[in-house]
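Quick entry between incubations.
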Amino acid sequence: MMLIKIAWRNIWRSKKRSAIIIASIIIGLWAGVFLIAFYNGMIEQRVRTAITQEISHIQIHHTEFNKDYDPKYTIQNSGAIYDSIKNIPDVKSLAARMIFMGMISSASGNSGIKLLGIYPDQEQSVTGLKDKLIQGNYFDSGRTNQMLIGERLIKKLKLNLGSKAILTFQDKEGNLASSAFKIKGVYKTSNSPYDEKYVFVRVHDLDLLAGLPGEIHEIAILLRSNNSLNAIQTSLQRKFPDVLIENWMQISPEIGLTVSVSDQMVFIYLGIILLALAFGIINTMMMSVLERTRELGMLMALGMNKLRVFIMIILETLFLVLVGSPAGIVLGLITTKITHNTGIQFKAYKEVYANFGYNDIIYPELAVKQFITIVFLVLITAIISGIFPARRALKLKPVESIRK
Amino acid sequence: MNHTVIDAHNLVKVYDEKTIPLYALNGVHLHIESGEFIAIKGPSGSGKTTLLNMIGGLDVPSTGEVIIDGTNINNLKGNALIDFRLNNIGFVFQSYNLIPVLTARENIEFIMLLQKRSSKEINTRVNELLKQIGLEDKADKRPGELSGGQQQRVAVARALAPKPKFILADEPTANLDSVSAGNLLDMMLQLNIQEKMTFVFSTHDQRVIERARRVITLEDGKIVQDSAPKKITHPMYEN
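Done. Structure below.
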């Protein structure tokens, strides 16, 4: 208890110096916590957008389909598979699709596209395509050969709403099939490359052209929660061994990689901040030890053993950090909470963010696990920072120190 | 019944042994009985502090040995030596060296806490010592709030707290005015007379020498005079 009392009082001996290092700790951790939350928010948003608007949680294909998108590789017994998945409680919605790698041509040019034949209601329930329309309307049930294209593509091809364009793709036999489609609506997502690549038409306008009536290439599944992803994927794979069942990390490895790297990035960000703080703490404590050379020598002369001296210096360092850390962490959490509700908008960088598939509004968030990691790393930093000045104190010789 | 508390044999402390040897101590023999009140005097550089440091286990002799109450402290290393000092030797330094962040009471308690004494025992002892040094009303003051003389009294109480075999006081009056120095020395002498506490002073101060029953004079690292117990004229001895 006495060591705790001495250590606590010692950190207030040089109030100005302690205040400076405590302020550094508060600002450093505040920035650190918020930076991590901001980064999380960015990653989480990209993943959420990718899952809910683009690739879903799980996709099912013919085992050969993904190799070169050959249209002949349709899903066998797709109706039975679809009906079976529909009844799984954790599945929120699902959509069947035909997929062709093709080309869109207009009088002003052409562009490579990924042509998706969709069931409009199913697609709306999985990707909310209708909600992304910025011009025109969703598919009319009475009319044929309507298409929805992205804002970036319509600009690129210098087309307008209601214009017609030729869609060309390979049919089941490997022959080119093409037909004119009218632009019924223009959509816009937060992912510009996606908007330039994906063209949606109804599946019934494609299947006969492709020579694949009633066939589909893909079933996209949206789950109620990502937590059940592995269990459902495993169970489906067991149930339907002849098809390829992939989760979003397998479908889009770059997003999976971003997520797995994000954990490491958190450590790197925090590590850099804590390293900078550690140097500040070590410097402060070294000065404190050097200033107290005679006092420490006296304590050792009187009978304070090395372990106690070591503990006292470590406690002083720990107290210094513990005074600043809660304030820094709490400020970081408050800032995160506020900005999580309001979002942080980067209007000026909207296009830049969109080019990388990110929304221009970021909602910072911090996971409990990360919070615990931060607290743990702060404590470790404090202890490690205390070791150097404590070792310095241990090297003092009472007889020499007392003379100083 | 007096017994030997300090027995130093042929103490030599030489610096720069391989180049130009400088002898801080050169063959010192010293024998101190319990209850003595000794002043070690001599000019600056005569080896007084070096001798005290060796007796206190703070420094090691180049040759020779120091035996404290039957224990050769030169054979003790690290924490064993620190623990020995804690339980057997009291120190009073020239510049008080109290822990500035602790109150007078806490400074006295501190040593006994290191000894892991019970809180009841510590309380009783601290109250007793505060009374002896006449600072009961200043018990909760920190060193910065006390005068030099008061701080040195607390330092003496701190040295006495663990009930050491003897107290080494290195120029304890050097930083005090004459009234404070006189009061402090009277208090120490009283402790010596009443409690038979052994005091060994290193000093230039005539007031210390006047009160000492034995005066050892050092010059160039050697004892040149070791006065036999004398009749003291100081009034405290007459009571």
